[in-house]
Amino acid sequence: AELLRLLSNLKSEVSDISGSHPDQAQSIAGFTAVSAHEATRDARNPELVELSLKGLSSSVTGFEESHPQLVQVVNRICTTLSNLGI
User: Fold this and answer.
1) CB of 10 within 8 A of CB of 32?
2) Which long-range CB contacts under 8 A does 41-48 form with residues at least 24 apart?
3) Which member of 34, 54, 65, 75 has the lowest number of beta carbons within 10 Å of its beta carbon?
């Protein structure tokens, strides 16, 4: 439930930047989809999960000052997945 709430928050944050930063918004959305897919697969590959989460974290680099909520949500998603043992 927590992960779904965070993904909903992320969708809202990405929507906010999509007009001014369409390429970055697309990268964030793409890495989010890949991360969620890899994290929820029956046969998880820890290396792919780690790579997708690193890509997701990297995709928000540069938004720390202009969109701190976006970065915070991405960090919370990564932490939540980690805490779940994913």
Assistant:
1) yes
2) 44/86
3) 65
